Amino acid sequence: MTPTPAGTTPQAGNQDRNGTREQAGVEDSTVPAYQMYVGGSWVDAASGATLTSDNPATEEPVATFPAASAADVDAAVAAASEAAGGWAATRWTERAAALRQLADRIADQAKQLAELDTIDSGNPIKGMRGDVAGAVAELRYFAGLGGEAKGTTLPGDPGMLTYTLREPYGVVGRIIPFNHPLKFAAGKCAAPLMAGNAVILKPAEQTSLSALELARLTEDVLPAGVFNVVTGTGAEAGAALAGHPQVPRVAFTGSVPTGRAVLRAGVEHIKHVTLELGGKNPMIVFPDADPQQAARAAVAGMNLRRSQGQSCQSNSRVLVHASVRDAFTAELVALVERLTVGDPLSESTDMGPLAFRAHYERVLGYIATAQQEGATVLTGGGRPEGLDTGLFVAPTVLADVTPGMRVAQEEIFGPVVSLITWSDYDEMVRVANDVEYGLTANIWTRDVSLAHRTAAAIEAGMVWINGSGRKPVGTPFGGYGHSGLGKEGSLDELIGYTRGKTVVTVLDPT
Predict the structure, then answer these.
(1) Within a domain: residue 502?
(2) pLDDT tens, 85-125?
(3) Domain check: are 288 and 251 in the same one?
(4) Is residue 138 one of the residues assigned to a domain?
(5) In a shared domain, residues 311 and 233
(6) pLDDT tens column, 312-355
(7) Same structural domain for residues 433 and 301?
(8) Per-position DSSP letters for 92-106, written without gaps between them
């Protein structure tokens, strides 16, 4: 299957109305060449440079797309700046109607979009259907929330009227990662668009195709220049967007090192920067927890069936009490070994491949390092048997992990669970907090008082009690420490794409 937009038959060397053209002069003419969407037009990179998207299940090329430079980012900023004033002046109800129309279009194209993300990212088709549904839900949520980006009237002296306004920034840069391509492309642009900003989206260089398909769906829904997609590497296109002097608001989702670079770039121009970064999230299993229930939650909370554990909120450290360790571990290993790893387009597949080769090698490197440091592989640990092609890693459970090991401290972002045994409560809390991250945590116990006391003690932006990683639409999400700055997915995010203005009026200036 090739990701040719629905209803089109691109002609070699020519742009079609949906932003793809067959790549001229290449051996395989069935591989389409996408273009970027800037100012309402489909364009190549000014240099003509391209990148190739590979299917991680087959390691074969899927499509090419532009490798933007700083000059291309300049063009996108100019287009967004020109469109920003008109979009900000549009009634919020009309902006909401546009977002709902876009959500409807995504829902209508759900099958094609889910398949494209599966081919481009390796995530299982069932998980990508969930991602498309999530994107639709976020667009509709923020469309309904638009009227809450409002100011207040303040008490003041007689003869004076004082009030505040919430105004959009104008141009917003949105840089997203590879693990949930369409969901993040649509969902993480919903709040800035609803707040009245023009958006420049820079998708991950490994999974850019569904963001370009999203742009196609916006063509006659959003005014030209309000939504722009610039593709390319983070080192070039991402850095140019993060540091652009005419982009006052930037949001980044991804790794801590790149987040630091985005923040440094923003400091130069005193930008408003929000960051949703990594996690090394603890799941704490108390003696009174049901080991079987907790093990099922541990598998669900790792997001193995959604993204092979490539999720910032995965509970990759399980701190299990010594009294239930054996029963919990046996159930966890049995559940993990029942997962089917294979073709991500198959309905029977639970886990697909990792997204790209460098990351695949990185995850295998962590498993090897863990063994060198004394951890024991209970299941998994390498390529699944019978899968000789593709970037597949078997879901892996590591035992005998100690808090100082690299696998207990660093985000692996893959299908690797580390088991740490504990018996002393205070020491467990110390270990749970003794990482640079503070994104999520999960507490399993029947003792309500103990659960809430522990939730207060854990340094994380979001804590589940007897949960499995699910969160309702509208739930604030964001972490402590190196896990980021700011909250997303809620009213906090919508307000975060506006800036406040205070107006003081003297009613009788005498």
Answers:
(1) no
(2) 999 999 999 999 999 999 999 999 999 999 999 999 999 99
(3) no
(4) yes
(5) no
(6) 999 999 999 999 999 999 999 999 999 999 999 999 999 999 99
(7) yes
(8) HHHHHHHHHHHHHHH
Position 239 in a domain = yes
The answer to whether 408 and 400 are in contact (CB under 8 A) is no
Contact present, 280 and 437 (Cβ < 8 Å) = yes
Q: Which residue has the tokens 């499995």?
A: 468
CA 81 to chain centre: 26
Domain limit, last residue, from 226, 256, 276: 276
**Do 304 and 262 share a domain, yes or no?**
no
- Which of 237, 243, 208 is closest to 73 using CA atoms? 237
Q: Which two tokens stand for residue 388?
A: 């000789």
Given the structure tokens 């690797």, which residue do they identify? 416
For 164-193, the pLDDT digits (tens) are: 999 999 999 999 999 999 999 999 999 999
Enclosing domain of residue 54 = 20-276
Catalytic residues: 276, 312
Evaluate whether 339 touches 304 at the Cβ level (below 8 Å): yes
Backbone φ and ψ of 443, nearest 5°: -120, 125
* Per-residue CA distances from 70 to 59, 232, 233, 270, 385 (Å): 29, 10, 11, 20, 45
Question: Identity (one letter) of the amino acid at 297?
Answer: A
- Same domain? For 271 and 301 the reply is no
Gap between the Cα atoms of 247 and 164, Å rounded:
23
